[in-house]
Design goal:
With about 575 residues, the protein is of the alpha+beta class. The protein has 16 helices and 23 strands. It is globular, with a radius of gyration of 23 Å.
Amino acid sequence: MKRSFLAKAAAAAGAVAMLALSACGGGSSGGGPDGAGGGSFDDTPARGGTLYRLMADDFSYLDPARGWDGGVNNFYRLIYRTLTTSAPGNSDDPSGVVPDLATDLGTPSPDGLAWTFTLKEGVTFADGTPITSAEVKFGISRNWDPEIGIGSPYAKQVIDAPEGYEGPYRDGPLPTIETPDDRTIVFHLKKPFPEFSSVVAQPNMVPFPEGTGAGDEFINDVISSGPYDLESYEPGSSISLVRNETWDPATDEVRKAYPDRWEFVIGLDPATIDERLLAQQGSDVNAVSWAIQPATLARIQGPQYEGRTMRFPGVCLTYMGLNTTKAPLDDVRVRQAINLAVNKQSVQTASGGPQLAEIATTILPSTVNGHRDYDLYPSQDHTGDVRAAEDLLAEAGVADGFSMTLDIRSDPKMQAQAEAIQQALKRVDIDVELNVIDVSTFYETIGTPSQQHDAAITGWCPDWASSASTFIPPLFDGRNITEKGNPNLAQIDDPRINERVDEISAMEDLDAANEEWGLLDEEVMELAPIVPLAVESTIIIPGENVTGLHSNPGVATGGYDLVLMGMRDPERE
């Protein structure tokens, strides 16, 4: 199954998913970072120096039981370890999962209801304390705490637990995770789950010393098990990481830990970040950031920037979730009308144009196994079918229109996308008010049903790259709706969808299951709980001294893998 996905991704994007910028405009491209632009960012770094990452917004949480978004998941691998983890971006199969704290990918029982893992010898926390099965069990059981466990949902969905269990701080040890000795841990599942090796790679499966991490203890501090430890954290301003001297590289085949330090500089204006990386003054030669702003795209077309940019094709869906519990969005005809009325071409333009965004009509991106091409809500050039939308609104009894509130992040590009939707829906007398939420609290806010408004623009990426099972169930299985950390933004709870999720999840042939997920994709969109908008690519401008940049669809969805990065010359400032 992993090979099947890798072949599909490679055909779409190149085996390491990196192209030079000129390939974006239709030029020839290489299969790696030495593409048409002539740049080379995958040289092996030298050891030492300080690597900088320039950021507009802070990470959501240092606590991995709380955070669960593409940016912070990548960061977590610098300071935390899990039983398994996503393969490094330079591996033969970067969409795969490999052992991390565990010696292998686990052994299922004959009935598939139990999985056993053995810990490597010599793994420790930053203070030198050994990591045993007890610490792994404790860290994972934190996910059942109703206040803390708002991150990845898979542990609670897959691992069995007593009814009403609320984590170790309230209810003590979780009896369905056994630790027969210091190096052995056994998980008992609700039902067979063939991809459980990928579940224990999730960022919230981190070990912690028993009794730690209650309440807000890990809001501003960490207990490291990875190659770096937290030296300081100023929320909204900076994060400094230094080497964890007790980390043993002999136990870790994934993290290379080339830099001596990492400095995350937070709170910068996105346009300022682009200017600094274009100018390359001082320590900015050792800096990276996330995607360039759409306004910068025209500037980097000049010959002076040839070989200075990298493009990472998108693997995530940008979409607008429609809250099916709010009138009149509880009427499927209204939701279908919104799908018809949205001008996706203008959303694409707001996202940076065809070079940075591909228009989406399905839930599953083309890089995810199970993807099928279809469009239930077609219009000429994807500009919206106003007449058909008006007819459906009239059928639903809202021909005179209505008002709705759209939650968005405080991000210039997302605001432009929201304004494009606002203008398109105005054509059918739907008045959209934009509710701008700070990036650091955005996901928690929209994932709390009591705080959610009528709609929200957000994105969804595969939680492990090989399976559509990480798209459809989290977003549309009504039994997974929670009071906090709720990924089902539409709050749709349709018996037919839930039944189909169970049927497909029980299939042992994962390739056949992915085909069924693709069929369910279309069934879900008939109910129009979301509006698929775009699959966005990422273009970055690395500092000219930075190297070791590799795409990783498992943790760096649409971007580079932090654990392989470093500098050509660590002495250069």
